[in-house]
Amino acid sequence: MAFWWPLLVLAFAYAICRFLLMLIPSNVPSIDVDASDVLDDGNQTMENSFIYIPSRRQTDKVPCYEPATMKYLGYFPALKPDEVKERVAQARKAQKIWAQSSFKQRRQFLRILLKYIIEHQDLICEISSRDTGKTMVDASLGEIMTTCEKITWLLSEGEKWLKTEYRSCGRSMIHKTAKVEFHPLGVIGAIVSWNYPFHNIFNPMLAAVFSGNSIVIKVSEHASWSGCFYLRIIQAALAAIGAPENLVEVITGFAETGEALVSSVDKIIFVGSPGVGRMIMRNAADTLIPVTLELGGKDAFIVCEDVNVPHVAQIAVRGALQSSGQNCAGAERFYVHKDIHSAFVAEVVKIVKSVTAGPPLLGKYDMGAICMQEHSEKLQSLVNDALDKGAEIAGRGSVGNIGEGAVDQYFPPTVIINMNHTMKLMQEEAFGPIMPIMKFSSDEEVVELANDSKYGLGCAVFSGSQRRAKQIASQIHSGVAAVNDFASTYMCQSLPFGGVKESGFGRFAGVEGLRACCLVKSVVEDRWWPFIKTKIPKPIQYPISENGFKFQESLVEALYGLNVWDRLRSLVDVLKMLSDQNASKGNKRTD
């Protein structure tokens, strides 16, 4: 006890000091970001208040509108290839300066952003809601919390994972030191999707900038309005720490804009569909730049018979309906054990029937609008295909009063049963508020069903036995897995995020995602320079002696032989050949 008591006192004192330090407000400056032109104060002029009917024709402008009301928000230029290359060139100049910045300066940038985000959550969520149709709660969960978690992880661990890492040098290089250095790649390019416009910009930006890069982000044509405002926040934070201009750029446009970006940068990160992902890879092959692809998923949500049904049903509905189908690793296939199938469906239907979709900013709706025009037609087509093949609608939510003159951009939350894998709804990514539920009889069967997909992003497994849930999850071919939870892996920002198969490859987030923004350089140097230097042994110096190969053979066995006596014998042979070689050389000099 006498030994442990001082240690306990010291540990307690340390904890108290850490707590008191947390209470001291850090010296983080505030930034001002002009939001006067994005706030909806109800006094819209005729020019920007009409109901907007989107044009199918791509022009030199990217038109923006609210999916929930179809109100016009404005437009942004669709940049041409030369304009994109100029933005990248400016970012490249800024990166050369930023590469010399300290981690202290980079952490201050993150703290400024974090302070602004926390103090302006309502503004950030409202802009996301207006541009994509999601509710304020969904925006908070998917935009604010995930971004704040990433920032705090980088503040806590980012520098540690970018510092030089020493590795073992092996047997033959014992006189050396081996290390890995992480240098900035240069200009990172990112082409991101519309489903989480705030986080999809901040996620690659934070990793790129903290690792010493610049970044140019092409935002989706379906979320350009919000993306260009979020850039103002980043620029204000960069200016506050004296960072070079043009370090972070957000560009708008269509396919031509994205293609130009891929051909100009040093790495590309893409979040989108498998089809476009393949095009990105083909274009990246011309310059042989690294590519990270996150191409969506068809995540399996598995419910065993030993669960708490009401508890899991709530999580299941959230997993299926989050962000009105604007899912990120959303649950799209539900496999429920036959013994609790009826009870689970009844509980889910009860919850779904209480869900109402409507204009998200009115605050009284559980679910918002579908972001992309005509996506409701695709969802209905998937439902019709399932119904034609024997499925049944077990229950639906409702759509509220969307207002006179508004275009219908809503799809009621829907529960469908009697599903099988011949139905498109169980194979194609829906991106909608639909819960297709299928029975299973055994763990082996559900693993086979879950793996019967061209996607492999994530999965969630629920069981009263943690061991059983882990065993099932370990057999599912996916990049991420949650045991007795859903989507919790992404909130652990120390973990890499990404998939396999048509869900893509490469990882962002976590150590792997941070280092993926780096040139990973292996370095070897003399351990005791200049006293011990590498010298080529005499038998293999040019001209190579007759026993050169014999020397190499003995050296290999001396270093790597499995039997200690064989290694010692070979070492003696090596030393003998070296001494004979030196003696022979000495004799030649005497002659």
TrEMBL record:
Membrane-crossing residue ranges in chain numbering: none
Keyword annotations: Oxidoreductase
Which GO terms of the molecular function aspect are on file?
oxidoreductase activity, acting on the aldehyde or oxo group of donors, NAD or NADP as acceptor
Active site annotated at which positions? E294
Protein known as: Aldehyde dehydrogenase domain-containing protein
Q: Which family does it belong to?
A: Belongs to the aldehyde dehydrogenase family.
- Tell me the ranges covered by the Aldehyde dehydrogenase domain, including all copies: 58-523
Listed PROSITE patterns:
ALDEHYDE_DEHYDR_CYS, ALDEHYDE_DEHYDR_GLU
From the broadest rank down, the organism's phylogenetic lineage runs:
Eukaryota, Viridiplantae, Streptophyta, Embryophyta, Tracheophyta
Q: Which organism is it from?
A: Fraxinus pennsylvanica
Quote the Gene3D superfamilies the UniProt record gives: Aldehyde Dehydrogenase, Chain A, domain 1, Aldehyde Dehydrogenase, Chain A, domain 2
> What InterPro entries does the record point to?
Ald_DH/histidinol_DH (IPR016161), Ald_DH_C (IPR016163), Ald_DH_CS_CYS (IPR016160), Ald_DH_CS_GLU (IPR029510), Ald_DH_N (IPR016162), Aldehyde_DH_dom (IPR015590)
Taxonomic superkingdom? Eukaryota
